[in-house]
């Protein structure tokens, strides 16, 4: 315990010395997130410095091994770091699909060479990643994907199209599912990493109902991918993909909590002068606080290795449905104020745009229906599921 | 940390196997219902629970009990719910014990509770809804003690109880928390009329009429005019325990339903193959997990003496009530016609859920409290 106390004291003073004051204020919107990468436009020197110092210390990924750019911290130390960051209101230094999705998959399935090559730059925020999973004909039915990678001896030749590639127009590299064999639906898929600047890659944004455009269509036209950028075994990419999706679902289910406390909701609603709405909000609070308890329990189960492998699906489903409900209530409470799409006081139409954005929660990362199917099959073991 | 300790897991396992053997629907609920037992539960089982230490689970060690907390209590309650086991565990071992802890009245009644010989009840509600602040039953000072007059209803095990904790008004007026006093009233007090009522789930809850019931001053639990505090503690224990029982009811009903989905054939298929039923079952699974986590969280906060325990116990009771209602409704619906028969057990879960939901405040009451406390 004495060691942990020392660690806490040292962490506190390091954060005090290194976290810029601007990075101790709450993020105003998604635009304040720091994504890093080759071409990222930092909003401020402070944002850049915060990402850099944390990355150099390995504290963007505190529990990864130090050999791969992580902090090498124990679970107890990681917890202390998070607590101390929270205590000073420190922002997340780096938002990254490399950290939340690819990293865990590389740690499990990558070769030693791949781990050494890719993980440290993920930790330092040098390369921004995007995900190439869905295709126009294969959304939640991911195994139906058609993008083809032909074995050309020293490289794969990739042709096809991906869709819903979040931030592909801003990403440096992509982790991508491709078909290397047509013999079986799940069995012929491989997991490839490649540079978005490779010849033959093009991408274009998809404008969404919220007016935002985080998603893109991405096209591959005779893209050459060196063979050492294959993760795991050829035709066994489905295992990597499933593992990574589990992490994605954990991450998405956590989003339901982002602004989750009932108090935050109440504050954003202001005065509620409608009895029916007040009742709905009270019932929502019950659900939100109960889900917060579940999330805490789920995270403890994960850490203890006691969580059922299909539990992230249950959490993703419940968390995202809850988040949609939250924004329906915010819209109801806001009345015509919440309808303003472009005006001074609406902060760029925050309320309606976020409301519309949440509708994707139960679609992206596998629809709610897909998650329920996974729970029915793997946890409840219902027949033919 | 929200995971159970090894000791807690052992307690849960022990209770689970004990009640799966001795507390079954056939041996207890149906037996006492169909033989018209006036208590609605078996004293033999209560005695067995005493032998396992369960009746004194929440009683402090220095007063002869196991000195365990709310978390352990929820583990036992969930198993009681799963088996629909009728027993005075909730009202006696949790609610009354919580109110009586550290009082002279506690010294008087705890040995009997630990031995599995004493049953206690609590009388709060005066109308069809749980409104503790609205208590109007009057306790006038009279000689050396008090004289109680008024009515109570939904006093669970009231007709079987050796002692009834009666919440009465010694000052102030209905709607105020101050001015309430809790009295330990012996069952044989003169002027106390007890009507034993059978509820929808075959459990018993009394209506009380008190006509100038003379009570000694030493029957006061805690302090005169400040009875809201022990009452609040007792109600927190009660609603957290009831929430856990509701989780058990939901889990029991859903397990029964899942079994049915895996064996019943219609249209040439197992009905569990139909996606519409799979999705509803999967949704319900998640809701039960969430309700259980909320209940354990409330218990954990109670055990830590954390001030958030108040709101979380309301969350737990409301969430468990909603989820359990969903579980029993889906249970009966998915069983189809057989689910409507008395012969099948699934309907017993539906009836128990309805009673438990109302006990110590229904979903609406607790959601309103959550809304007030988080505003």
Automatic annotation (TrEMBL), chain A:
Belongs to the acyl-CoA dehydrogenase family. This is Acyl-CoA dehydrogenase. The keyword Iron-sulfur does not apply. The keyword Flavoprotein applies. Its cofactor is FAD. Residues 42-126 form the Acyl-CoA dehydrogenase/oxidase N-terminal domain. Residues 130-223 form the Acyl-CoA oxidase/dehydrogenase middle domain. Residues 235-380 form the Acyl-CoA dehydrogenase/oxidase C-terminal domain. Gene3D superfamilies: Acyl-CoA dehydrogenase/oxidase, N-terminal domain, Butyryl-CoA Dehydrogenase, subunit A, domain 2, Butyryl-CoA Dehydrogenase, subunit A, domain 3. Keywords: FAD, Flavoprotein, Oxidoreductase.
From TrEMBL, chain B:
It comes from Sphingomonas astaxanthinifaciens DSM 22298. Belongs to the acyl-CoA dehydrogenase family. Residues 226-371 form the Acyl-CoA dehydrogenase/oxidase C-terminal domain. This is Isovaleryl-CoA dehydrogenase. Keywords: FAD, Flavoprotein, Oxidoreductase. Its cofactor is FAD. Transmembrane segments: none annotated. Residues 139-198 form the Acyl-CoA oxidase/dehydrogenase middle domain. Residues 5-117 form the Acyl-CoA dehydrogenase/oxidase N-terminal domain. Gene3D superfamilies: Acyl-CoA dehydrogenase/oxidase, N-terminal domain, Butyryl-CoA Dehydrogenase, subunit A, domain 2, Butyryl-CoA Dehydrogenase, subunit A, domain 3. It holds the Pfam family Acyl-CoA_dh_1.
